[in-house]
Amino acid sequence: MTSLPTRLLHTLRRRAALRRLAHRRLSGTVLFVCLGNICRSPYAAATFSQGLGVAWRGRVRVDSAGFLGPGRSAPGHAVEVAADRGIDLSGHRSRLVSPEMWAGAELVVVMEPGQQGILEALFGRGNREIVILGDLDPQAVGMRAIADPVGQPKAAFEESYARIDRCVGELVKVLSDVGGEQGRR
After folding, report:
1. Residue 64 to residues 1, 4, 29, Cα–Cα distance (Å)
2. CA-CA distance, 30 to 49, in Å (whole number)?
3. Which of 26, 56, 113, 181 is 20 to 30 A from residue 152's alpha carbon, by CA?
4. Alpha carbon of residue 95 to chain centroid
5. CA distances in angstroms from 116 to 20, 79, 128, listed in the order given
6. How far is Cα 61 from Cα 28, in angstroms, rounded to an integer?
7. How far are the Cα atoms of 91, 95, 103, 137, 164 from residue 71, in angstroms, in the given order?
């Protein structure tokens, strides 16, 4: 159970994030970023791609990256829990967020509030939108960050991925509505 102030803050942040996204046309590159790019961001990117479906392929590029060493594979629990949810992370290898990725991204989705600040300090803000994925959660939760399950039991991956599913579902819905409306005009 979350406290009333926490629930109110979450509600306000959620409304603000949805309002900012409600006017964005879905095109270009959506970049998902987390610390190591081995669990959360690759899963969120794959879930987002799957949620968009074939109608959006070719119009939107989806990518993921992180801040730690490249070339690492997803941990066993990440691969297993993702597979249970219809996502294949078995071939994923971590990538570092680069200036080129940053420059090409129209929308950047981070897993923790501090990651937004790190990206802005490294690359500047530019005209891209940066969203903290946890702010989109339709459930009032006690923290903005999507919990990092690395080094934890399988249940932590299940909990983290369930939250990512909820948040990405909201992201797909708001962006698809905007893109669909603009596509019909």
Report:
1. 32, 34, 10
2. 10
3. 113
4. 15
5. 16, 26, 12
6. 6
7. 11, 6, 22, 30, 23
**pLDDT tens digits along 133-180:** 999 999 988 889 999 999 999 999 999 999 999 999 999 999 887 544
d(CA 6, CA 95): 34
Burial of 112 from C-beta contacts in 10 A (0-12 / 13-18 / 19+)? buried
Of 150, 171, 145, whose CA–CA distance to 51 is shortest? 171
Domain ranges of the chain: 4-18+26-176
Measured N-to-C along each axis, helices 40-52 and 154-184 cross at an angle, to the nearest 10 degrees, of: 40
By residue count, the chain amounts to 185
Closest by CA to 75, choosing from 164, 154, 145, is 154
Q: In this structure, what token pair is assigned to residue 117?
A: 């600040």
d(C-alpha 102, C-alpha 156), whole Å: 29
pLDDT tens sequence across 105-129: 999 999 999 999 999 999 988 778 8
* Order of strands across the sheet that contains 105-110: 60-65, 28-33, 105-110, 129-132
CATH code of the region 4-18+26-176: 3.40.50.2300
